[in-house]
Amino acid sequence: MDIKVDTNTVVVFDLDDTLYNELDFLKSAYRSIAKFLDLDNWKPLYSKMFSLYRCKINVFKTLAESHNIELSVLVDLYRNHQPEIELFEGVLDIFEAIQSKGGNIAIITDGRSKTQRAKLKSLGILNDLDFIVISEEIGTEKPDLANFKAIEQALSGVQYYYIADNLKKDFIAPNTLGWKSVALIDNGKNIHFESHKFSNVECAPNDYILDFKDIKIL
Q1: CB 181 within 8 A of CB 149
Q2: Contact 17/166 with Cβ under 8 angstroms?
Q3: What is the pTM of this model?
Q4: 2-20+86-217: which CATH topology?
């Protein structure tokens, strides 16, 4: 799809499963926890953790019992580790193209401030962003209009785009506000994968892309 960008354009992105796969954050956290629990022999433990996760067995409850550790400690380790994650191919090219046309780039994401900002730092894009909206910091979660109006208040523009992945909550507010909404189709690894349940007009995006190579900045 083509996106015409000028100084009056604001292109806003979701974070998890839009700029990178959230599953990679989970795997990174599991590796960090496995090393914390058994540094000298962490790989078998990590393998077990990921297997438990894939089998929908409570990983932290299992570890708490087997390693005599509080659940709260495991949750803190999960949320507060420095993640090893990578951007999807083509994201930086899109950012550079938007910037070259004088457009603004922003993020709207749900989650805890420390965790989400650690992800942005790990991905190396903090300096590329003109504004960041994180649900914990603003006090509301998508699809609340407040999260999107915060962008409009911070970055004045004529045309706003929101590129995200979760039909359940991502596109209701931008559609209401007259933004252009774009869904990145699940690559088979998304945490949320029930888009077929939310194909009504209210939830549906204006357009779909398979990956960032589908976007052409004009």
Answers
A1: no
A2: yes
A3: 0.94
A4: Rossmann fold (3.40.50)
